[in-house]
Design brief:
Number of helices of chain A: 10
CATH superfamily of one domain in chain A: CO dehydrogenase flavoprotein, C-terminal domain
Strand content of chain A: 15-25%
Largest sheet of chain A: 5 strands, antiparallel
Order of helices and strands of chain A: EHEHEEEHHHHHHEEEEEEEHH
Structural class of chain A: alpha+beta
Helix content of chain A: 25-40%
Structural class of chain B: alpha+beta
Largest sheet of chain B: 5 strands, mixed
Strand content of chain B: 15-25%
Shape of chain B: globular
Distance between the termini of chain B: 54 Å
Low-confidence stretches of chain B: none
Number of strands of chain B: 5
Largest interface: A-B, 31 and 34 residues
Radius of gyration of chain A: 20 Å
Distance between the termini of chain A: 56 Å
Number of strands of chain A: 12
Oligomer: heterodimer
CATH topology of one domain in chain A: Enolase-like, domain 1
Shape of chain A: globular
Order of helices and strands of chain B: EEHEEEHHHH
CATH superfamily of the largest domain in chain B: Beta-grasp domain
Low-confidence stretches of chain A: none
CATH class of the largest domain in chain B: Alpha Beta
Radius of gyration of chain B: 16 Å
CATH architecture of the largest domain in chain B: Roll
Number of helices of chain B: 5
Bound molecules: flavin-adenine dinucleotide, FE2/S2 (inorganic) cluster
Helix content of chain B: 25-40%
CATH topology of the largest domain in chain B: Ubiquitin-like (UB roll)
Mean pLDDT of chain B: 97
Number of domains of chain B: 2
Mean pLDDT of chain A: 96
Chain lengths: 328, 163
């Protein structure tokens, strides 16, 4: 079974400079962390790459550093299994540990990295299939075809971005540290994403995610996910939320994954919130999520159901966090 | 592509072989080292039939390039029984009917073996969470969970008796 995967060269740079040189020489090369997303996609003939670059040997790539301002810097090479059990993430930043724990099964989390999770490919019923299946269907807009079978009238791919970690991190106000030919830059994590299932990352050529920064956080946070099988499935909807004390009450941040081609940060939430939460406020949160997510027919489950599920998860999670905040 | 020189310690024995960069660990184990215990079910990281242990952690060998395991210590199902015969986990799978067709069993047992080292006295819920990445089309899981819990009890009793 030597031919199970297409042929490629494999590199393992030990510095960002070496990586940059490799990438300059082979601009079509793809980087990877654990490989748990890209290897199944290679297997299914969804990746054209003459070379793969493994990031695991970059110095400090898997470091977790407490910053002087009380924030946290998380290297993109950190494994999800480590994040799931990391004691630094047991307090206010718990949404991240809960999200890491919700990814696939234990053996998967041992290999999967933070960077790979945030940069994972988008997913669709018409895309994550074998080559013969896709060929029989005339391929699709995301790869080799010219029509999005989910939205044939539209002009763009509607594959869904299904990272569990992204909404948890966005709710916590995370920033992405990127390194590329132009040096390094730090942007809001949300700005890493574009609303196009076929080109959903705003990374420039030769640019990669090196770390995620979490600002100090004094509130409570959590993550809730709906999926078919607990041990293997991506979120049909996943919701991260954070509740932080502000003047006059609490500020709420909610972000959703699995429904759109990018994570959705819910806007227009009532603020500041008073605890315990009034029924009308919970209703408002539910309505805001239902209104702002746009699930499409990209999974086996109906889009209407995913919309309702996202709102229900948000309601359930915010109520849990409100109880925790009130008890603290 | 030019082959790479791989060195792996598998079940305590050092192996060297040549493999292409694109070869998956499961294929190197099964086809170059003739260790056909770990199975291939899905080859897309769903089923867990290919579960092996790499440097003390369970990993799905169908989703790891062999090159990523360069220099690692690997345990497969072939390395779990001791010189005295089957491991308690294997005995308990037999005793509690933790298998029917047996296709998932090497992965199940290799995962359970690591799980019981990570958590020697798991609750039923912890067994279910810890084994969640291993799928079985036959048993309905009840007897697998029973077998893992029974093995935990037996291993703990043996440890106490030895002290
Ligand atoms: C059966 C199965 C179940 C899964 N379940 C879930 C789930 O429940 N939730 C979930 O969120 N994901 C899930 N995944 C997807 C994936 O395994 C995880 O998201 C994982 O965290 C990816 O990390 P990795 O390091 O293995 O990624 P890799 O495969 O190494 O990389 C993924 C992608 O990100 C790019 N990339 C990696 N690192 C970087 C970087 N530092 N900078 C820029 N680009 C980078 C790669 O080029 C590649 O395109 C699942 C996958 C499978 C096969
Ligand atoms: S063969 Fe590896 S998970 Fe199924
Ligand atoms: S015993 Fe048949 S798949 Fe588990």
């Amino acid at each position: 079974m030597t031919e199970a995967l297409p042929d490629f060269r494999l590199h393992r740079p030990e510095s960002l400079e070496e990586l940059a040189a490799l990438w300059r020489a082979e601009p079509q090369a793809r980087v990877f962390g654990g490989g748990t997303d890209i290897i199944p996609n290679l297997r299914r003939g969804l990746v054209d790459a003459p070379a793969l670059i493994e990031l695991g040997a970059l110095p400090g790539f898997a470091d977790l550093t407490l910053l002087p301002d009380g924030g946290l810097r998380l290297g993109a090479g950190l494994r999800l299994a480590d994040l799931a059990s990391e004691t630094e993430l047991a307090g206010g930043w718990r949404a991240l540990a809960e999200a890491a724990r919700a990814v696939a099964g234990p053996a998967h989390r041992n290999a999967a990295t933070l960077g790979g999770n945030l940069c994972q490919d988008t997913r669709c019923l018409y895309y994550n299939q074998s080559d013969w299946w896709r060929a029989a269907n005339g391929y699709c807009l995301k790869y080799r075809g010219d029509t999005c079978h989910v939205a044939p009238q539209g002009s763009r791919c509607r594959a869904a971005f299904c990272s569990d970690l992204a909404p948890a991190l966005i709710a916590l106000g995370a920033e992405a540290e990127l390194a590329g030919p132009g040096g390094t830059r730090q942007i809001a994590l949300l700005a890493l994403y574009r609303d196009d299932g076929a080109a959903h990352l705003a990374l420039g050529p030769g640019e990669l995610l090196v770390a995620v920064h979490l600002p100090a956080f004094a509130g409570v946070s959590g993550y809730e996910k709906m999926r078919v099988r607990r041990g293997v499935d991506f979120p049909l909807a996943g919701v991260g939320a954070a509740l932080a004390p502000v003047a006059g009450g609490w500020a709420l941040r909610v972000a959703v994954s699995g429904t759109d081609s990018l994570p959705v940060a819910i806007t227009g939430l009532p603020s500041p919130l008073a605890l315990p939460l009034a029924a009308a406020v919970i209703e408002q949160i539910d309505k805001a999520v239902q209104k702002q997510v746009t699930p499409m027919r990209s999974t086996m489950v109906s889009s209407h159901y995913r919309r309702l599920a996202a709102a229900a998860l948000a309601r359930r999670l915010v109520q849990r966090l409100a109880r925790e905040a009130a008890a603290a | 592509m030019a082959k790479m020189h791989l060195k792996l310690t598998v079940n305590g024995t050092e192996h060297e072989c040549l493999a292409e960069p694109r070869e998956l660990l499961i294929h190197v184990l099964r086809e170059r080292l003739n260790l056909t215990g770990p199975h291939i079910g899905c080859e897309t990281s769903h089923c867990g039939a290919c579960t092996v242990d790499i440097d003390g952690q369970s990993v799905k060998a169908c989703t790891v390039l062999a090159a990523q395991a360069q220099g690692a210590a690997i345990t497969t199902i072939e390395g779990i029984a001791g010189p005295g015969g089957m491991h308690s986990i294997q005995e308990m799978f037999r005793e509690h009917h933790g298998l029917q067709c047996g296709f998932c069993t090497p992965g199940m047992i290799t995962r359970a073996w690591r799980l019981l080292q990570e958590n020697p006295s798991p609750t039923e819920e912890e067994v279910r969470f810890g084994m969640a990445g291993n799928l079985c089309r036959c048993t309905g899981y009840q007897n697998i969970v029973k077998a893992v819990l029974a093995a935990a009890a037996e291993l703990n009793a043996a440890k106490e008796a030895a002290q």
